[in-house]
Amino acid sequence: MADAVKLTFPVSMWVGRTTANVLILAGGLSMLLPFFWMFITSFKGSFQAMKVPFEWIPEPFVWTNYLDGLQRHFVQGFALTGFHGT
């Protein structure tokens, strides 16, 4: 029976790949952080969003921000379509 061939990588190659992967992961997380911050802030009231020690978890969650935005969007869209729709 033939002996299995054992592939070994030099330590410098392993360290280089690990460093590259860690840097790519850190870069990706730093690119996602503003989107996460924006999403979390959308559930806060106006005073709570500007609070100086930033709180990651809003207390309480303000769901009406989305309702107000949707209502404003539909009203403005309807008004524009009504005025320009002929």
* SS field, number of helical segments: 3
How much helicity do the residues have?
A: 55-70%
Low-confidence stretches: none
The structure class reads mainly alpha
Q: What integer is the average pLDDT?
A: 82
What would you call the shape?
A: elongated
Q: What is the number of strand segments?
A: 0
Specify the biggest β-sheet: none
**Cα end-to-end separation:** 85 Å
- The SSE string, one letter per element, is HHH
Q: Measured on Cα atoms, how large is the radius of gyration? A: 26 Å
In total, how many domains does the architecture comprise?
Answer: 1
Strand content: under 5%
Polypeptide structure, described:
- This protein has one domain (11-84).
- It contains three helices and no strands.
- The longest helix has 31 residues, at 11-41.
- With 86 residues, it is mainly α.
- It starts with 10 loop residues before the first helix and ends with a helix.
- It has helices at 11-41, 46-49, 64-84.
- 65% of the residues lie in helices and 0% in strands.
Main features:
about 0% strand, elongated, about 90 residues, single chain, about 65% helix, 3 helices, mainly alpha
Chain-wise SSE layout:
Elements: H1 11-41, H2 46-49, H3 64-84
Overview in brief:
The chain has helices spanning 11-41, 46-49, 64-84.
